[in-house]
Design brief:
The structure holds two protein chains of two kinds. By secondary structure, chain A is of the alpha+beta class. Chain A is 37% helix and 21% strand. Chain A has eight helices and nine strands. Chain A has a five-stranded mixed beta sheet. In chain A, strands 4-7-5-6 form a four-stranded mixed beta sheet. In chain A, strand 8 and strand 9 form a beta hairpin. The termini of chain B are far apart. The chains are: A alpha+beta, B alpha/beta. The interface between A and B is large, with 52 and 48 residues.
């Protein structure tokens, strides 16, 4: 695939410096809900200003460019090894150019690798399909919000949550309470009900590939998604935890089958700087569509 | 809106109240996990920190044509430094800690004792805050890695909210209590 590295480099630049339209609209709308002269309004105005500035300067929205998560849906026969090489080269170059912060630290020695490469970084998820599209998506997820994600194993007696939808709701709202403003809210939640501990968390992050306005095809989950946003906003935590009208901008919930003995609820908390972008390539490797 | 301009005296700091919106001008020194652990364990600071401001930040700084240029400079989560912060505030007479997400009771106590405030910057506002850095005066402890080094920044009109003042008041404690009460009505 020609120009793959250059295309991925541009994907990284856009993801880091530009918020997708659907997220910007939601933020601008929410800013208007905050009280005049309040700390919450002060925060939202600076956020909106920052979004404009980052796009203009082609510079990172947030200095924590976070974990680099690639999700690739490609036809049978697609060269994953070549993609991985191109992605790694693009990540190193993006780091040298300042689109990405040097964010990869050896867990045993504490040494920063300097180029965002290292075991597990960047993270790549490949899904094969029988169509012809190559769909490449990237999420940059900062450490602050990553740290306030949580995985619940139901029943959880601390929060009085049983293995049912009421328990799921309690777990999600508990995650929001525990997070307060530390995840740089107003945030967006990606949630997975079920799975094993690993697949559950991955699927919760894949929920963050959905668009702000999309509808969950499952009625129970669609109702839960709406309720969580309304309920979380009633908690009044507000932007940055200053107190205010908007605590969550959205909530996307998926489900996987589970073991009879297990019932996990994984909550991935995404900050207001909801950096996700993607493109579709044609068979000669040209970008034919930007996805957000 | 309060203009908080250096020198950062105890008097100026004690005049601030929880909820005040400020614009800060003067020197700030970045420090995150590695620096805090280093100072807490008795490491000698490479700069004089008395009456100075610590900024919890791991900036993106690139050298362009021989000069340091700040590409992004938003705050990191302060909670990680709670085991160290109070002690460091007292030891060095720190006048303000800038970060995000707030800090805990040990830090609040030290703020009251010494005359220090917690200034909550807007998380993720890396470009707005980078524009506030008028000069990169220097960098120290680079061996900790770029995000973990002490970057000496001169800032102008840096926006922040006083969420923990020098009188024992914490907006974080208030919002936590209020939100927990409201949760009881929802579950």
């Amino acid at each position: 695939m020609r120009n793959l590295k250059a295309n991925v480099l541009e994907l990284i630049r856009r993801t880091s410096a530009e918020l997708p339209d659907d997220v910007v609209h939601t933020i601008v709308r929410s800013a208007k809900q905050e009280q005049q002269g309040s700390n919450a309004q002060y925060a939202m105005n600076i956020i909106v200003n920052n979004i404009d500035m980052a796009k203009l300067k082609s510079a990172p929205l947030c200095q924590d460019t976070g974990s680099i998560l690639f999700f690739v849906k490609a036809p049978k026969g697609f060269d994953q090894l070549a993609f991985e090489k191109a992605a790694r080269d693009a990540v190193a170059e993006a780091t040298a150019k300042g689109y990405l912060r040097q964010n990869s630290v050896d867990s045993l020695t504490g040494k920063n690798t300097g180029n965002n490469l290292g075991p597990g970084s960047p993270s790549l998820h490949f899904h094969q399909h029988r169509g012809s599209r190559v769909d490449v998506r990237l999420i940059l997820k900062g450490g602050g919000c990553e740290n306030v994600g949580a995985q619940y194993s139901l029943p959880d007696t601390r929060i009085n949550a049983n293995r049912d939808m009421d328990g799921v709701r309690k777990a999600i709202l508990d995650a929001v309470i525990q997070a307060q403003g530390k995840g740089c809210g107003p945030g967006i939640l990606g949630v997975c009900i079920g799975g094993d501990r690993a697949t559950s968390y991955v699927h919760s992050k894949e929920q963050l590939l959905r668009t702000m306005e999309d509808a969950n095809p499952d009625r129970t989950l669609a109702a839960l998604e709406k309720d969580i946003v309304v309920s979380a906003n009633k908690l009044g935590i507000g932007p940055m935890g200053f107190g205010g009208a908007t605590t969550l901008l959205g909530c996307k919930v998926g489900a996987l089958n589970r073991l009879p003995a297990s019932y996990f609820v994984s909550v991935s908390y995404m900050c207001w700087a909801y950096r996700r972008q993607g493109f579709v390539l044609n068979s000669s490797g040209k970008i034919v569509e930007w996805l957000y | 809106m309060i203009q908080l301009v250096e020198p950062f005296t105890e008097e100026k700091i004690r005049a601030l109240k929880q909820g005040d919106m400020v614009r800060l001008s003067g020197m700030v020194y970045t420090g995150r996990d590695a620096v805090h652990k280093f100072l807490h364990e008795g490491g000698r600071p490479p700069v004089n920190l008395e009456n100075q401001i610590i900024y919890h930040c791991g900036p993106v700084v690139i050298k362009e044509k021989g000069k340091w240029v700040v590409k992004a400079a938003g705050p990191t989560t302060s909670a990680r430094e709670e085991p160290y912060q109070g002690h460091i505030i007292e030891k060095f007479k720190i006048r303000a800690v800038i970060g995000k997400g707030g800090m805990g009771p040990k830090t609040l106590e030290a703020c009251k004792k010494v005359g220090c405030v917690y200034l909550h910057a807007i998380g993720g506002a890396a470009q707005v805050l980078a524009e506030c850095v008028t000069e990169v005066v220097g960098v120290h402890l680079e061996e900790f890695g770029s995000p973990e080094a002490i970057w000496a920044f001169r800032v102008k009109d840096f926006p922040a909210v006083v969420t923990m003042d020098a009188h024992g008041n914490s907006l974080h404690a208030t919002v936590l209590e209020q939100s927990k009460e409201r949760l009881k009505q929802l579950v």
